[in-house]
TrEMBL record:
It comes from Vibrio maritimus. The lineage of its organism: Bacteria, Pseudomonadati, Pseudomonadota, Gammaproteobacteria, Vibrionales. CDD domains: LuxR_C_like (cd06170). Keywords: DNA-binding, Transcription, Transcription regulation. One of its GO terms (biological process) is regulation of DNA-templated transcription. This is Transcriptional regulator LuxR family.
Amino acid sequence: MIMRKNSYKRTIQHVSFGKDPEVTQRVSELSNLCINSIETITPNDLLNVASGPRNRILLFDYEESLDLFKQVLNLPLASKNFETILINVPHRLTTEEILRYGHIKGLFYTHEDASKITYGFGEIINGKNWLPRDVASQLLHHYRYVVSANTSTTVVDLTSREIEILRCLQSGASNLEISEDLYITESTVKSHLYQVFRKLSVKNRLQAIAWANQHLLS
């Protein structure tokens, strides 16, 4: 099954350092099945185009992305300029793991056939979601009950540092990684997190990320 021609002229870009030949081969095979080839963009390049036009769909290989997130903090995946696709997922992910990839439009498990994956790519390019039923249900439950129950329509008085902390949470960074990235101590990070949770009326990182995904769109 060949990917249908898109009507929005959007492109899929594989975010990768290109160090894993198995991943490169996998993406190359998918690209060969697509009418529009899949380009490759490094994480550093991605940081430079975060404010560009909204026509990029970012492709992540799940196993590769685990190392990528450790090497590069604060990828702008929550930016309204990007949508994301996740492939080669070996098992069902937690909601927090899914939210790490920003505005996710498609998720494909390891066992899925390449032709089915590329057909899904075409649907995503044409504006649709392509999520397994369990993932769609998971996200629906999250936004219906977690976000609505723990967000406020009033303006939240966050400091610039607290917003930086929230951005780090969105990227999936640990307290240690946040401290290294912002050049502050872990105890200071914990203090900022306490203030952020208090101001947002949330109880944990997952709920804070959900708030950020709803309100820190750019």
